[in-house]
Amino acid sequence: GAGVSQSPRYKVAKRGQDVALRCDPISGHVSLFWYQQALGQGPEFLTYFQNEAQLDKSGLPSDRFFAERPEGSVSTLKIQRTQQEDSAVYLCASSLLISNQPQHFGDGTRLSIL
Amino acid sequence: AQKITQTQPGMFVQEKEAVTLDCTYDTSDPSYGLFWYKQPSSGEMIFLIYQGSYDQQNATEGRYSLNFQKARKSANLVISASQLGDSAMYFCAMREHSGSARQLTFGSGTQLTVLP
């Protein structure tokens, strides 16, 4: 597809369950980012990949959060033992490596933890 | 420290009028980029306009222009001839070019409502 694709669009899970969120970036985009957006707030950075290498994971809030991009294209964000404070929209973005190029976002996954 | 500040939680504008959304930023990096994104209620983040710190002219994209005042560290978005479809959340974001960080830092956003 032409844009960044995220799935599922909505996810409801019980506290303590593991969840996996998928991101399919724009073809040819080297950089891939995950952001977390709480209700009424701006997105906050979680982690960054350049191709398959995870170069920055400083924004991951705990060791329950794990991200991978094994072949340098599709990425998965996994949250283990979910807690209610994990409820948020998770946005994936991709971009070219050039610094003045914008990041293009997917529609996000809205995660609700019951 | 807050790097991006958007002081207007909500703004109203009459259809066909112009509106300015404020954004101030804080950085010691001499090279950086400023971005504006639109987020309708459906949730997608739509890129609007980019301004580089070394760009001599203010960026423009159709009805969007960026009023960049480097000395004041402000990068206000101007939307001309507002349309009902412009009603959305607007985010200012910055990326610092020095160092290894490549992520965007976002402000808290401004909810714009265009009135008919």
Quick recap:
The complex is a heterodimer of chains A (114) and B (116). Chain A has 114 residues and is mostly beta strands. In chain A, 0% of the residues lie in helices and 48% in strands.
Please tag this protein with its features.
heterodimer; A: 114 residues; mainly beta; seven-stranded mixed beta sheet; four-stranded antiparallel beta sheet; 0% helix; globular; B: 116 residues
Describe what you observe in this structure.
The complex is a heterodimer of chains A (114) and B (116). Chain A has strands at residues 5-7, 10-13, 19-24, 31-37, 44-50, 53-56, 65-68, 75-79, 88-95, 104-105, 109-113. Chain A has 114 residues and is mainly β. Helix content of chain B is 0%, strand content 50%. Chain B has no helices and 12 strands. In chain B, strands 2, 5, 6, 10, 11 and 12 form a 6-stranded mixed beta sheet that branches. A 4-stranded antiparallel beta sheet of chain B has the order 3-9-8-7, with no helix packed on it. With 116 residues, chain B is mainly β. Chain A binds chain B through residues 31, 33, 35, 40-45, 48, 50, 55-56, 59, 89, 91, 93, 99-100, 102-108, 110, and chain B through 4, 33, 35, 37, 42-47, 50, 52, 91, 93, 95, 97, 100-109.
